[in-house]
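Input for the complex:
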Amino acid sequence: MKPHVALRGVTRVYPGKTPVYALGPIDLALERGEFFAVVGPSGCGKSTLLDVMAGLASPTAGEIVFEDRPVNGDVPPGIGVVFQEDASFPWLTVHDNIAFGLRQAGASEAEVARQVGYAIEFMGLKDFARAYPAQLSGGMRQRVCIARTLVLKPRLILLDEPFGALDQQTRLLMGDELLRLWRETGATILLITHALDEATMLADRVGVMSARPGRFLDVIATDWPRTRDSTIVASESFGRLTSRIWTLLRGESIRALGRA
Amino acid sequence: MSSAGWTRIALVAGLVLLLEALCRAGVIPNFTVIPPSAMAQSLWKVLASGKFTPDIIATLTNVGIAIAASMVVGIALGTLLQSWPAARRVLDPLFATYYAVPMYAFYPLLIVLFGLGDLPQVAIGFLLAVMAVIINTLNGLDRVPPVLVKAARVHGLGFLKTAHRVRLPYAAPYIFTGFKLAVAYSFIGVIGAEFITSSRGIGYEISFAYNNFDNPVMYAMILFILALVVTVNMSLHAWEKRLLARRRRA
Ligand SMILES: Nc1ncnc2c1ncn2[C@@H]1O[C@H](COP(=O)(O)OP(=O)(O)OP(=O)(O)O)[C@@H](O)[C@H]1O
Ligand SMILES: [Mg+2]
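Predicted:
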């Protein structure tokens, strides 16, 4: 079967007086409906990888193919992105933030109300539908952005540390919700995270990146059943997988720190 | 109201009373300044007579046109320049000296260009106001976080829609500052120009009354402008506070 999205020899160099070799070369193929997690030391090029995959930045070399079409400089329809930074629109209420993409796509107000109402419920934002982002916590703002992306039913979802601002318990629960959503929609997910346990628990495969310029040191298959949830963190193989990832990452993280 | 607010009211009231007392006592002669109570009375009479209604309407219309034109042109030019760094580098130093130019010096030229009607007044108001809108639009757009522009691109928005739906709304508080300045400059520009050559408007009537030693009418119109501008600015200020409240943490 053809991959849903494929990267071949992708690199990215930020030009300038001293060019920054931020990424690659990266070779990666995601199957349709796969849940892929990316872990890597700070500053190794994870967000750069996401930008390039989404068509928000052009690769310096290599090519990206999404649903049989090359991605280059434009975001193809069907891709949803949740950014590392807060991307909520401060002039819109929670409701209108989540409705932004639907209205943009020309959905009827009845449809918007239905979808947004459901997403607000789903994300636990019911008491804040009329609030503005400034009145929310960082974690709640991130949930607004997740909801704004999910209501558009993207076929490929790219998430950049979406649970970074959440506490551990909420993160596990949000992870469960994400798994449920993933099963229901059949979307392909690429999740960037700094939490190794999160990567192990959620993903079918975990890509472990080197220090900058980020390459994949290894890709580890977890072999979880599709119906998994956060209770697998108690299983024996969970610990084994997580410690394998950490062994790979430890040296790289030290290298990344030493450079900084 | 806050204690600062009460103090402010007391201060203004005190100054008015002082002026009243000085005028009544003859310290300030009536051919220089008439007592504030007489100004208010005269204003009431003048407004009730309807004699100056056409002037007031003419001035307000011209001010309104100057504000609207400077907002439309200023936001459009600001948006264009912000996404065109090369042009901006060329123009930036010129912008910085813009307000050093005494706009009224161009009045003869504007009359040659636009004739003796309302247009020269509107043009001066517009010229004074538009740069404030451009500068504040640029300032606001410079602060748009790149991630919001990325979000716009993910939603499939092109240049114009990104400006309209994301960048300008983000910059709105800054543009509002430009708007407040545009209102002030438009009043200054239009009324100031009416003093020079014009056959109607509030500025013209003040100048006419002055030349005819008609202090009651002159001070009535001055009081009218003062009250109008203060009211407009206070309303804008209250509106701005409401708009900003939702953007700030409580
Ligand atoms: N616009 C840019 N111009 C120049 N260098 C950049 C730019 N953006 C990122 N970089 C550099 O590229 C490298 C990779 O950055 P990137 O944001 O992709 O890392 P990351 O893995 O997402 O980091 P983090 O874990 O902190 O989120 C870093 O060294 C960064 O300094
Ligand atoms: Mg990052």
